[in-house]
Amino acid sequence: MTVSGMMTRELVVDGFTGDAAGYEPVRRAYVIAFDTVALLSIVCLFTILATAYFAPSIRRTGTWFAFLGSWLITSISYVLLIRQQIGPPPDRGLCLFQAMLIYSNPVLSALTSLSFILELGVMNPQWVRRDPSGLYCHLSKPIALSVTSAIVIACMVFLLLLEALVAFTYYRNWKITQEFKELNRSSVNFSVTVRFVAFNIGVFFALTFGFWSFVPKTLVNSARLDLALGSLPLIASIVFGSHKDFFRVWFPCLQDRESQKNNLY
To answer: What was the pLDDT predicted at 58?
Structure first.
């Protein structure tokens, strides 16, 4: 049996269809891209977490650290198989350990996000109110919807549309109400809302590739989906690490005369 035949048989066992020989160069390209994104995510997330922990001018809550920490663990789990992703089968013990992390990471991310939402509700009880429809209670701030939608995949499109409506209403009315002033005095400001919505948009683009799972499963489509989902930790590092107080620590020359406001999220 030729090498190509052996590879084709392996693909059938794994449930994939397609020309294995023609896919091999593409596979290497996706592996390199996936590993690059994962390693870059680790560097960015570790830098952000270390900066927030050691810099006295930056204050963040414990749930903020837990939330980004869960994404750091996710990124680390993605790189455990480096140098064993192509060629002979990987070490069985390492492969099992990575599989354990891959399946448990979504639960960890969901729990840290749940803790984050719970803290928002406890620290800001005025945000917890009944929905205008009278059907259920929710947090009145769109930041809560943003975090939840990043975890609850099935509601992704609905929540994105809802957030767009809330953002439009917020922008239209903030000049004629006191809501904006109250928001500035609270621990969560408008820029945080923008960050969560931006992160949600990144999740939406990644999940778009997920629709390919409903079409015949090919190796290329599967690799694209994995690469898209693997980019989520990097998106999280960009969204949550792009605040002014981080840049003030990293680049002291950018210090300005305006007062530095503590941002807990």
So the answer is: 83
Euclidean distance between CA atoms 236 and 75, whole angstroms: 11
Place of tokens 């392996």: 10
Instruction: Spell out the domain ranges in the chain.
Output: 3-253
pLDDT in tens, 218-243: 555 556 666 666 676 777 777 777 77
With CA atoms as reference, report the closest residue to 113 among 196, 27, 172, 193.
196
What's the CA gap between 82 and 32, in Å, rounded?
A: 9
Q: Cβ neighbours of residue 219 under 8 Å, at least 6 residues apart?
A: 11, 16, 18, 20, 23, 26, 27
* Nearest-angstrom CA–CA distance, 169 and 229: 31
- Round to whole Å and give the CA distance between 142 and 129: 13
pLDDT in tens, 170-223: 666 665 555 555 555 444 455 656 666 666 666 566 555 545 544 454 555 556
Say if CB 144 and CB 120 are below 8 A apart: yes
Range 48-52 contact pairs with CB under 8 angstroms and sequence separation of 24 or more: 48/237, 48/240, 48/241, 48/246, 51/246, 51/249, 51/250, 52/246
| Architecture of the domain defined by 3-253 | Up-down Bundle (1.20)
DSSP 126: G
In the prediction, which pLDDT does 63 show? 78
Main-chain dihedrals φ then ψ at residue 21, nearest 5 degrees = -65, -40
Q: How far apart are CA 67 and CA 264, in angstroms?
A: 13
pTM of the model: 0.53
Structure confidence by residue, pLDDT tens digits, 97-127: 888 887 777 777 767 767 766 776 677 777 6
